[in-house]
Specification:
This protein has one domain. Helix 2 crosses helix 5, helix 2 runs antiparallel to helix 8 and helix 7 packs across helix 8. The longest helix is centred in the N-terminal third of the chain and has 25 residues. The protein is elongated. It has 9 helices and no strands. By secondary structure, the chain is mainly alpha-helical. Keywords: Membrane, Transmembrane, Transmembrane helix.
């Protein structure tokens, strides 16, 4: 009498598989990221005008990473270049948010936490790797930068098209 072995069950079999993402969800997530970066720009205009933030991180990054390219841009056009780079970075962050599992993205806290985490990663890893000065930041400046990243996360997480980013089984 021969016994057949039961099929092996791996970790992938134990958890529920997420269905394929709708094709339009990642471009929409990128758009939300760009819009979130634009909202941040508005808040940054306020905080820099009020003297709470000395120099915005995108400007510092560009000056550190591509100083020759920055110097080639006429001085009056540099703010526009900084904004375009910031919006592009925001779009990339939106796509990363869009890649999170749907069960995470739909939580009301996911966007604000994502925005704060995005800032924390910049502060803890990217800024030191680029050699950007961080020690001179005041508490008010740090709180201002955290606040604008939370605003970014709120925008990224609060989809204007939430029903269209859901998987077919969720609608």
């Amino acid at each position: 009498m021969t016994q057949t072995k039961p099929p092996r069950i791996g970790p992938d079999d134990l958890r529920e598989r997420e269905p394929a993402r709708p094709r339009r969800s990642l471009p929409r997530a990128g758009a939300r990221g760009a819009i979130g970066a634009m909202a941040m720009s508005g808040l940054r205009q306020l905080t820099t005008s009020a003297g709470l933030v000395a120099k915005v991180p995108p400007e510092s990054v560009l000056e550190r990473v591509v100083p020759r390219a920055v110097r080639r841009v006429p001085r009056h056009q540099r703010p526009a270049v900084v904004e375009l780079v910031h919006w592009s970075y925001g779009a990339f962050g939106g796509v990363l948010f869009g890649l999170l599992p749907g069960a995470v993205r739909v939580r009301p806290w996911a966007g604000p936490i994502y925005g704060a985490a995005f800032w924390a990663v910049f502060e803890a890893a990217i800024a030191p790797a680029l050699g950007l000065p961080r020690h001179s930041r005041t508490t008010a400046e740090r709180l201002s930068l955290l606040a604008d990243h939370v605003v970014y996360g709120i925008v990224v997480g609060a989809s204007p098209w939430p029903q269209q980013d859901k998987f077919p089984e969720e609608t």
